[in-house]
Amino acid sequence: MASHCLTNMMTSNQLKEPLSFEDQARTLLERGGLTDVSLIDLEEYLQGVNYYRLNAYFHDELDPSTNLFPIGFSFKTLQARYEIDAWLRRLILLALEPIEIKVRTQLAYWSAHIAGSDMFYDSNNFTNQRRYLEVFDSFNRVRVTSDPKDPVLSHHNKKIFRKISDMGGRGVSVIWKYFQIISHFPKYSFKLRFL
Asked: CB–CB of 138/181 below 8 Å?
């Protein structure tokens, strides 16, 4: 049913066809400006930076009535905007890492001490039972399909994980392992009852 609805919607509003890197570069050059870069160099740059990612750094420069860049807008300016933003994002992530580690550490510590090492297996510790099952199942999918080179998941899978029959074949591990692995699976919002 949903597939049928999408097909009908697409026939009335056709999506754009994908462009080659060369065509993407040509499109940018046809908008004027960017006179300081060749088609080949721009195509090479677009192979490393997605066109639509780069779009965020030039879109506001386009004249809405002509869809052209203003005179003097250069590739060097566009490239500098992207690279400064990328540098700032890396800097922010670098600053956030110790905070993330501290939060994970505190969550793991207090969760284990308040609700016990196996608190993740008691659905009564969670306010939303459906979401709890989604998170639990998602974790197990990631655990099973994880990269064997990932040291945390590899250790978890080889040394810690064990099967028990009363969990219907689901795996069991201590709560502090989950707080280390939690970024490896989709973000689900769930609230622990005891927090």
From this structure: no
Contact 78, 54 (CB under 8 A): yes
DSSP of 67-115, one letter per residue? Answer: --PPTT--HHHHHHHHHHHHHHHHHHHHHHHHHHHHHHHHHHHHHHHHH
Q: What is the pTM of this model?
A: 0.56
Q: Residue type at 12?
A: S
Rounded Cα–Cα distance for residues 97 and 93 (Å): 6
Cα dihedral across residues 82, 83, 89, 90: positive or negative: positive
Q: Is the separation of the CB atoms in 185 and 141 below 8 Å?
A: yes
Structure tokens at 88: 């700032």
- What residues form DSSP beta bridges with 163? 171
Q: Which residues pair with 126 in a beta bridge?
A: 192
**Residue 48 and residue 87 in contact, taking contact as beta carbons nearer than 8 Å:** no
Contact present, 133 and 175 (Cβ < 8 Å): no
State pLDDT tens for residues 16-59.
899 999 999 999 999 998 999 999 999 999 999 999 999 999 99
> Model confidence over 78-104: pLDDT tens digits?
999 999 999 999 999 999 989 988 888
DSSP 97: H
Eight-state DSSP code of residue 104:
H
Residue 186: pLDDT over 50: no
